[in-house]
Structure formats: structure tokens, C-alpha cells
Specification:
It contains 44 helices and 74 strands. It is an alpha+beta fold. It has a five-stranded mixed beta sheet, with no helix packed on it. A five-stranded antiparallel beta sheet has the order 72-73-71-70-74. Strands 1-26-25-24 form a four-stranded antiparallel beta sheet, with no helix packed on it. Strand 72 and strand 73 form a beta hairpin. Helix 41 packs antiparallel against helix 42. The radius of gyration is 50 Å and the shape is elongated.
Length: 1640
Amino acid sequence: MLFASVPAFAADVQLLQVLTPGTGDSQQFTDIAGLQLDANGAVILADGASGRVLSLQAEARESFVAGGKQRLFGGRVLGGVVRLGDNLLAVARPGENSVAVTDNRGTPRFVLGEGGSDEGRLSSPAGLAASARGRLYVADRGNQRVSVYTHEGLYLFSLTGGAKSAALNKPSHVAVDAEERIYVLDAEGDGRVSVFDHNGQLLKQIGARQFGGGETRSVLSALTVDAQGLLVVADRANGKLVQYDWQNGKSVQIFGSRGRGRGQFTEVTGLALNAGGMLAVGDSGNPKVEIYQLPAGATVPPPEALRLPTVRSVESTTPGCDQAFALPAGELLCLSHAVGSVTRLGKDNKVIARLAGTFRKPLFAAADARDVAVVDGDEVKVFALDGRQRFSIGRSGSGDGEFDAPAAVLLADRIYVSDTGNRRVQMFTRDGVFLDKLVNPKGQEWLRKPGALAVDAQHNLYVADNGARRIRVFTDKKALLYEIGVDDKSPQGFETIRALALDADEYLHALVTTATNRQAVQVYAGPKLVFRFGSGMENAPGFVNATSLSLVPGTQPLIAVFDAGPRQLKTFAWLQVPSRVGGLAVQGGLKDVRLRWQKAPGSQVTRYRVYGAVTATGPYLPLTDTADTTLVLARDAVQQALFYRVSALSGHGVEGIASQAREDLFQSGLAHYEAKRHVEATKLFAQAWKEDSAHAPALEYLGRSLAAQGTPAEAVRHFQELARLEGFGITGVNLQVETLWQARDYPAARALLDPLVSARRGDAVTYSLCGQVALALGDTVTAADCLEQSLKLNRDNAPARFALGQVYIRMGAVGNGLSEIDAAATLAPQSATLWRKAGEAWQSSGRHKEAIDRFQRALALDSASSAARLGAARSHIALKEYEPARAIARTLVGGADEAAGQYLLGAIALALKEPQEAVLALSKAANRDPKNSAVWLALAEAQRALRNDAEARTALQRAVSADPAAFEGYFRLGVLEQDNRQHAAAVGALEKAIPLQPANAEAHLVLAVSLLALERFRDATERAREAAKLAPKRIEPLLRIAEGARAQGKYGEAIEVLKKAVALSADSATAQLQLGRVYLETDVYDAAQTHLERAALLEPKNPLPHDLLGNMYRERRLFDAAIKAFTKATELGGAAEYKQHLDSAYAEKKKSLEFSANAPRLLLQDLKLERVFSASYKRYADQPVGAVTVSNASGTDYKNLKLAFHIKGYMDFPHSQEIALLPAGGSTTLPLHAAFNNKVLGIDEDTGVQVEVKLSYAQDGQPGSIELTRPLTLYGKNAIQWADFRSVGAFVTPKDDTLKDFVRQAVTQYQPVAALNRPLLQAMTLFDVLAAHGLRYQADPNSPYSKVSGEQVDYVQFPRETLRLKSGDCDDLSVLLAAALENLGIETALVDVPGHLFLLFNTGVPAAERDRISLQDDQLVIRANQVWVPLESTLIATSFAESWAEGARKFQEALKAKTLKVVPLKEAWTHFQPVTLAPANYTINLPTPDKVQPLIERERRILVSKSLERFVAPYRAMLAASPNDPGALLQIAILYAQNGLYDLAFREFDKLLAANPRSAEAHNNRGNIYYTLNDYERAFEAYAYAEELDPADGGIKLNLALVHYQRGRLKEAVEKYREAVGLNKSLAGQYQAFEKLLLK
């Protein structure tokens, strides 16, 4: 059977082709020793029997004889065959113990390897494998190993398996996968597969039994592997092929059987796979090659392309020297022992300079850019580069400056001489003066036979000690740092260290001899061997007798080795792989993308390659190369790329692994934004901003995305952040205003604009927005000023010009307005929308013919515009041109615009006063287009005309549902409810209408009427005042204001307002009547008579003026006049009350005639009452609310009089006082006190009450009394008078439970952990929680603090009210903040400056320690020797830092101007105690963490930064003197990092790396930050850079171990941990727990 059954495989293999031996000798094969399968399906076969290499294809066959007499090989026996690129073949020669490299036709190129057991030599080589990374793997069967070479034949290293049980045993086949894992088949016994990583580390061994290919035991005979590491092995015993997943320990496919038919095998000796999944099977027992197509496996993402260092031979020269050292520019230093000369030779080996004098036997030389030093016997001679001798050092001896057989000299910062015989290293100045020496300490033998030397940039000295067979490294303090070398018994141990050299990146290059390799170059990073090459060879690539090693620096550095055998200087390019680029940051913009990355370590890096891709997985296409670490690419040049990678390239053209892919988060977000996927866009923009807090476009579009999701507060918060970025202040404010404008929060938008506009700091957009906001608020003067300014800055701003036209129309300059509107349309002549809007403007101004013209222009540009058609039709209807309107309707009916057509027909019917027909047409329109609010409005109008108010209400509700932003729907609904006396419902609708059109005076007025009906007098007054401001020529708002004032007992205010009404319209009977009534109620009878008589004349049929006149006459006891007036009222009105008034007048007249002439003559006179404020109710028990005079006009003394003062409902009992004696003709004035009960705090509105003053007396033994009543206004609990500034203390209520709960929860939940002053930290936390709560500054529309005089009544919110309302004036916000801070035990004070109020709080820090808070003295206030911080409460929506800065500015300004008034709350409370509020019937929830935490974190960073100023200042001073001082930059960065200010730390690290790219400390600390942030990929990048720069630092390696562990790479973590502890044994004690995790 061809295929054996295996569980659950997706598809069978497919036999494609069978190749058998041909008929001629050239096509015969019997012993398949090697097999190669090309990508095109061609088979390369090495026949071990004939010594022939064949190329087998279905259509053609070629061959050449490689073995035999006079052939490539002496013998016919061949081994493996493999391609080295497209044009070369490598063929193993087991008999000659070598590998021959030929072209495709058999022409020899070179031979690698020679017979022997030393490293690099071969014994019976068998299988071959080649990788794309330039390595050739040879199964060195006789030496029990796999030897690894470059494709040029230079030996690299060997794979052995290690210990005995794991050691390779006669390896026959070798293969390599895409990750450079090496697979080796041992031929001994049943066979075994060993798997190694690219460094030669054994990963796994798999015995034959684990493959389980058949019923009998398996015997493995061949092996190959695919790119992903799936093995295919041949089971010779069972005739089967097994595809095996070694990583998971299971078979994937098993097929074949034993035999000679198709799909049957007897002895498979060769297997080969190509990239397309084709498998070639070579069966030597049944000579054939079968080619199969293996089924496609699961798609596996390709691994990150591994890059491996290698070496390339550059050139060899034969200068004829006994010793030679390479110099820059192709020159060399040539030492000739026989003639005793030292010469500088050029590239052509011609003499450039000959060193002066004679030499006994020059053994060693060193050169740099200044000098040449030569060791000549026991003397060191120093020469200039032109050959002149400068001086000599030393002579034979053991004293300082004397030598015994010196072996080496080194020119560096000093001259170092290896004084071998004296077992020391001596150090001299560059002028030859002895300085110091490195000797063996007492009891220690560091130096036995010192030889070659090297010194690094840290002045560490490397000494090759051939006596100890070690390389020892000493610090500049002569302490042993570490040593390089292994146990003397190890085959890899040094026997001789012939030369040392450090390259520009401080890799140590050593030319060494070991027991197994006589000629090797080994490269170390710190103590770790990272690369090696070379071996002892006579003829093959390698060295015969290498004696010196030198390095040629530059962008293409070279290693030069002098081989004394052939007397050649051989140069090599170490193709070191540049480090993976780290720190890639991508900042996309609208027009370009900016990339920056960390400079890759390594002097060999000369440029970077930038790749781009549309998706994260690629493909990545190269965009450009650059030598810089920053790049700006135009968007049209990046081929729509959204993901980027950057790789480093060396001067030799070696490319490192590309960086981690980084997304252009901004452009990705923008794609979502433009597709209206705003949630996804928000996430990407937020991430872009998080990665770069100065990314302005990301901030802008993050705000725009939030606004588009209906979260304007969040959008505004981000635009505030944008405004803080340098260069984006105005843009940030503009976007805030635009967002608030769209949210119809016009007051907040105005508050933002005012500072910019007043300072003339805005741009054209600012002024355009200002105009639109002012227009919405009804402030046409400001709107005109702003829009005119906008047009000065940009005359072609069509929207601004259009808005200016609307303003002019609103101001009454209709002609100018329409001209501006037309000019706006002319600026955008192709804009159908602007022409339509122009038509609507002309239409609203009653200019319908002109409107029709503009609508027609719009239709000429957009014939499908139904809005333009409707506009034209409406104007036709207004002109009573019904036929054209019907014609337009007919064009719409029956088509897609059926609803619009029916709407027009309904509108025409309404115009013709045919409501029933209108209802029919409009109902059809509503059914067709239920989301069209205009249809529902028209239908409501028709229903009202039919008196169907219920149906009208339904239609209006549908209108507002269809368009919640439509003013007209809410307004008409409010009017309907008011007409039906449903005032609560009317208020609900009208309060929704007004924000949509804040400048609509009628809406405010209508709302005032319903509020008055609901007795919400204060709210009604506010609305009426707004209507009066918007419509100053109308008296109706004034009448509503007066009505509200009168209802609250504010008669004085009512009189003043009514006077204005009368002045505005003297013929208004209503105004005259109301003014007369108020005068009457305040006993101003003459004025009352005048206005009531005027009202009676203006409305002669109105009985009310006559009735009121009657009351006035009766009060004055003019009963005849009263009877006459009441009689007139009764005649005109006939109301029962008028008849009652008339009867009462007759009765009182009769009583007055009967009054006794001897009645007592005690009088209550001159009752004077002060303003009474509910919030100060506790104060009135001691401070009188007024006074009254008691007079005795009789001739008799009165004794024991009792005066009682009472306000019913608000005093539990009258306040009484005794008058012991009031003599005849005497008088006395008494104060009036009030002990108010708690009901006074229930007064929300200013309330009119009657006060009663009662005087009790006794006359002739009979009790008697007289009374006096007067109206008094009890001002609501929020009223205040600023004449005594301390009175605000009553409003600061820190013990209020509602406030206390909010404050304590805020601090508990959100106060960050930071080493900061407690009051400062808590104040910041509260401030930001309040900002996140949505608290906003909003000036009181009626009495802003800046306009309130000392005697004027103002209104202040209690803290709990401000929390609930989320807005307040400067006084409200300052009171809230002060109360909240006082609740936490933080002392506060309120600050009054002209027109403004803010606060201070006490940090408790002594003045002498003020720098703990800030180094800026002008930001602090010193009071009582303590540091206070000012806060500008109106900036609650911005930031704590800005509030602090602005508060400080205002304080210093007022202090300088001497206009400062500071009242500590403790002082205020001694006079005005805090109000005790009743428990609230509501709770206030904290804002959610997503709103609070970003604000807290931002402010924490600012405060921490301020607190660090005193620590950073000394280092800043150092930088002022030396801008690139690495120590100062490092310390500042570490300070920031330790305190969580990571972006500031990164900024300092970047400065440090710009000045010193080789700072391992900077990279290590960058890694620490990323590690803290759990960004382990970036942490690894940084640590890897640091390790490359300082490979001997155990701490860096430990950090790498930690980050490997976090990334789930346990093996790498263990390796790095062991390296770390090897370098620094103290780490083992510090990280015991980590070690247990790793090694458990």
C-alpha cells in the first residue's frame, strides 16, 4: 500500500514524478550520496559509486564527473551535495577529507577543509547543508561533529552535542531550517536526530523509536527539513517516510512501504525539500528519485528574519615582511627582522616612510594617528608618522621605566608596555614619562607572562597573560574587573594569546591558539564570546601561522591578520549584524508622517532603511534610506502606509532586523474618523496622544471624535490640553468654542472667547466664532464687532460674512445685512447651500421676490435641492402666488419628494385658511416623512386652527421627536400648554426651546409668564429680565419683572421697573395700573392716585382702577371719595367684591363718626426696617432688624408699656421689650430684634411678609393696644449684600453632610500616591474631581459679581447647590472650594479684588521652606509666616496649575495696586456663622474614574515637577555651564523617572543620547521606564542596546533576564540571569526569589 493510515491529516501526499537512471554512462546512478532539489524541481544528485554529479530534470539531464583520476577528486567516492547560491555547488569528498566548490558545470573554484581532527579540518565528510545566511554545514562523520563554514570556506565553529550520551556519533546527514536550527542524523545504530540552535546549543535529540514509522523497529537512513522545522526522515527498515513535528512530538504524515514499486523503497539515502513543499526521495537500493508534493500545512506566520554575523575575506597582500600591522587607508607597518627595519607601506606595498635608525630585532609595533611605537629588544622606540624618532623608553632592568623582554606596546591615552619578564605592565605619558605600573598584589598572581594589550574608553586595561592562559581586565584603579578564558583542561582553553585589539564598539578581538584550533580569531563582548573564525590550514582558507592582528577603523571596518607562513596580510570584513532599531515612534499628521528612533549602537551603522505597510502583517516595502534618526515623509510618498519599521545598515551593507512595527495611530484613527467610526477613532487617537503628549493633531481629532459621539465635555477637556501646547493656544480655544457652540452652551463658549477677544489675540476663526456665539446670545453689537474683525483678517471668509449679514438684519440694518449675505454667496458662487441660505435670509426679511431669485440660483447649481424648491414655494405663498407654489408642489408629488409636495399643498391650504384640507395634505406628508419636523409643525398649526388642541399637542411632540434641535417645536408646544394653563408642562417645553435660540425674547417672556403662574418668582424675574435685554423697546418684559418683584415684596424694585415701563409707553393702561397699585400698597397715596386716575382715563371701561382708587381713599379715611370710586367700579364691573368694598366704605364712615374724642394719643412712628437676609438669620438675635419710635402726644404719663415685634411664620414668638415710663409729650426709639426659626432657610425666593409692631398699654384700668404693620422682604437663603464682605462666611458650610460625603469620597478614591505636601495634593485632587464632575464657571446673568455694588443684593449658592447645578459665578465657585478644603482641615481665605473673588489655602509649610512648594516666589503668598497658595476658581474647567498661576497673578497685581482684601474664613465665621442646612433630599455622585484619573495624573505630574525643581536646579546650573554634561542629564532623567514623570525622563535621556549615543546607562534606564509601564517589547529594545554598549554590566543582563521572563522566554531569561550572576555574584543574593522562579 502506498500510503499508510495516520490519524487526521488533511490531505494526502501526491507523487509527481519518478526519475530513474538513464541509458548512458553519464546518466547512471546507483549510490545516491547527496541530493539537492532546486526550486524549479530539478534534482542535483551526487553518485557515490561513479563519482558523477548529475542534474536530473524531466525534459533534460546533464552531468559531470567529479571523482576519479585527473578529476576534481582523486577518488570516486562522493558525499553530500548542496547549492551555494544560484551558480555554485559544494560537493563532499570523503576520501580527500574536504569539500570542493564548483560551478554548475563542474569547474573548480576552491576547496575547503583539510584532513585532520583540529577544528576546521575534516574526516570523511558526508552530508552538506547550506543556509541563506551564508553558512555551510558539513557532517564531519569521522570527527563526530558538524563543522560550520562560510560560503567562502572560512571555518566558524563546530557542533558536537556535548556530553557523551548526547555526543554526535558518525553524523551522515545535516539540514537547516529558516530559523537556522540545525538537524543532524547520526548513522550509528538505528539512527538519532539531534536539533541545535544557530549558536550550536543542543535543543533536542530524537531516537529512531520516536518516529514510529512501521510495525518493526525503525532504522533512520536520511533526513531533511522544511522552512518551519517539520522533519522528514527515511525509515529504512520499514520503507517509510515520516513527516514529524519534533516540537510537539508527533507525526504529521507517514507514507510509503518497503518494495520496488511506485511509492515503495528499499534503502533511502537521500532526501531533499524545496520551498514549494516538493520532496525528492533518493532510493539507492532501488535506484530512483521520486518527487512528491507534500500537502500544505497550517499557515504559520514567518518568524522574524534571523540575522547572523559572519566574516568575508576582503583581500590578501604579500608585503614581504616578517611581521605586519594594518594601518588606515590601506597602509601597513612592516617589520623585517633580518635587516632590522620598520617601514610604512602604501596600498601597492611601496615604502611611504622608513623609521629612522637601526633596530636589533623589532618584534612588535603599534601605531595610531600620532605616533608609531616599536618594541626593539628591551627598548621601546617612539616615532612620528613621517619616520622621525621622537624618543625611546626603557632599558634592561627591573626598575620603573626598565624592561625585561617586553612583548607588546599600546598607544592610547598613555603608552602601555607589557613588561613580560618583570611580570607587569608599565604606563607612560605620551611623551615617555613613567606614570604607573600594574603589578601582582601581595599573595596574588594576576600577571605571569603579560603580552598583548588593549584599553577601552573607560580606561579599563585588557592584558593577555600567556602564563595564566587568560585575558584579564583591570579597571583604571587597577582592580581586577573580570577575566576571559576557560579551564586549562578544556579543548577550548587558550594555549597562546598572540594579539588583542579593541574596535570602536569595544568588542575585543583576540588572535589565539587552543588545543583544538591552532589559528583562531575570537571576538568578545565583555567576557562573552560572540563570534569566532579561522583555523589552521595549509592550503584551504585559513591560517598557516598567524602572528598579529590589527583593526582598520572606519564605516567599513576590517580585521587584518598577518600570516607569517605565506607572509601575507589577510584582511577580513566582520559582517556584524547591526542591532535591532529601538525606540521607533511614529507621529502621523494630516500632510506628513514623522518618524524618530534611537540611534542604533555600533560605529558600523551608517544608515537606516524605512519600511512601510498597509497592515501590521505586511508586506513591508522599503520607502527610503537615511543617515539620520528622524525622518519626515509626505503622506503621498508613503504609499498609504499605516505601519512602519526601521532597520539599521552597516557600512558593509549588512542589514539588521527591522524594528518592531509601529502603527501610525493618527492616520489609522483618521481613517475611522472619516468613515464615522468614532469609537474606534477615539481609541486610536487616545493611544497616539498617550505615546506623545505633544501630538497636536491626535489631540485635535480625539476631541473631534468625542464631540461626534455626543460627549462635548470630554471633547472640550482634550481641546484644553491642545491649547496648552506651544503654538496651539488659539486653535485649542477655537475648537473648545466650536464644540460648545454645537452643544448650544453659548454662555460657556462666550466665557472662553472673551479673554481672547478683549486682548485682540484671536485669529479669523476666533472672531468668526465670537460673532456667531454673540448672535446666538442676542448680543448683536459684539457679534458685529467680532465678525468685522474676522473679515479684516480674512476677507474671503464666506461663513463670517454671511453671519455678519444676519447680525445687521437683527440690528435693523436690513439692507446692509442682505448685501453682506449676497456677498457671502458671491464668495462661493458654486455653493448651492449658500445661495439657498441667502434666499432664506431675504425671505425672513419679507423680500420674497429677491428670495425667489436666490432660491432659483441654488436650484441652478443643484436641481435636486428640495429645500430650495420649498423655499421658493414659501415665498410664492407669501406673495399669494399660489399657482407657482402649486406648480412646485406638483413637481414634487408622485416622486421621491412626495412628502415635500404634500407639505407644500398643506401650507397653501393654511394660507388660504382651509385648515381641514391642510390637515389632509399634511397628514400624508407626515406619513411619508415622519422625521420632518416642519411637516409636524404645520400640521399642529392646522389642528389648532380647528381647535383640536390634543391633536396639535401630539403633532408638536412628534415635531420635537423628529428634530430635538428645532426651537419652533418646543416653543409652540410651550405656548399650547400655557394657553391650556398647563404651566408646568409649558415650562418643561420652553426650557428646552430657549437653549436652541437664546436670543429669542418672546420665548423668555412666555416662559416668565408660566413661571409666575407657578410662583417661581425669582426664575420668572430672570427670564423677564433676559427678555427685556433682548427686546428693550417692549414693555411686556418690564411688567413681568414688576409682577415678580411685587409678589416677593420687593416694592421698591417693582416701582423702579414700572417707572421705566411708563416712560417707555405712557399710554399703557396696564403699566399705569400696576404702578398705581404698588404705590398704593406702599402707602404712597399721592403717586398712587396719579397713576390710577391715568389708568382709568386710558381704559374708561375697566372697573379695577376705580376699585383701587376707592381703597386708596378709604386708607386715607376720605370715605365720601371712596364711596364714589367704589360706586363707579360697581357700575362698570358688577363684581361682588366691588359691592362688598362699597358696603365696607359706608360702614367705616359710620364708625368714624362715632369715634370717641378722648381716645388715647399714643403713636408708633418712623418704623424703619433693614434688609433681612435668611442666610444671616443667626445674627439677628443680637443685631436689630430695624427700629420704631414710640411717642406720647397726650398730656398724661404712661407707665409699663410693652412693645412686641413679630414676623408670623418665621418667629416662634414675638420679641418683646418693656417701657417703664413714657412721659407726656415724650418719645423713645427702640431697636427691633428677631429670633428666627429654621423655616427662614426654606425661603428660596425673596419673600414679602408683614411685620407687626404692637404697643400694649393700660388707660383708666382698661387694657388697650395700637398696632403698626408694614411689608418686609425676607431675602431668600441665597441672598447676600457685599457691604460687609465677611457675610459670605455664612455660605461656607464645611459640615454640610452632602458636601462632606462628596469631598471625603473624592479624596479617598482619587487622591494619588505622591511625595507631595498634603494640603496641596488634596486641593489638587478636589479641584480635578470637581472639574471632572462638570463644574463650570458661568457669570450670573442678572448680577455678575463684577457688576455688584456693596449695597446691591446679590445671590450666592451654597456649596451643595453649586455641586448639584455644576455651575456658578466666581463667588459660588470660591465658596464651594473653600468649604471643601475646610472640610479636610485645610485653612482657607477669600480674596476680594475689584470686581472679582477668589481664594487662598494654607499649605502649612513655613515660609523658610517655601521651595518645597515652588521655586517661583510670585506663585506663593506668605501669611503669618506660612506658605499659602492662591486659586482662581473660575478656571475650574481648565486645570489646577492654571488656576494656581492665574490666582497668583491676580493676587500680586492687586497687592501692587493696593486693592486687596483678604478675609480668612475663621475671621468671617466669628461674625457670620455657617448656615445649618436641612438634610438634602438628593445625593451627588462622584464622576467616574475615566473622567477623573486623566486629570489627576496630569496635575500630579505638574505638581511633582514643581516639587522636584529644587532638586533639579543644581543640575540645570551644571547644564548652563556645560549643555551636554552627561552626569547632569542622567541625574535629571533619573529624578523624573523615579517620580513617575516618564515623558520628562525620556526627554532628558534623549538629550543625553544625542550627546553621547554610547551611554549604556541611558538605554538601561529607558528600559527600566518601559518595564515599569509593562511595555516589555520596548523595554527589551532598550536593554538590548545597553547590553551591546556595556556587555560587562551584570545589572543590564539581569534586567534582560527579567524582561525575557515577562515575555515568556524562559530559556533566554535563564541564560541572561546566569550571565548576570557570573559578572556580579552579589546579584544572586539580591534576586533569590527570581532565581527560584527561573530554575524551579
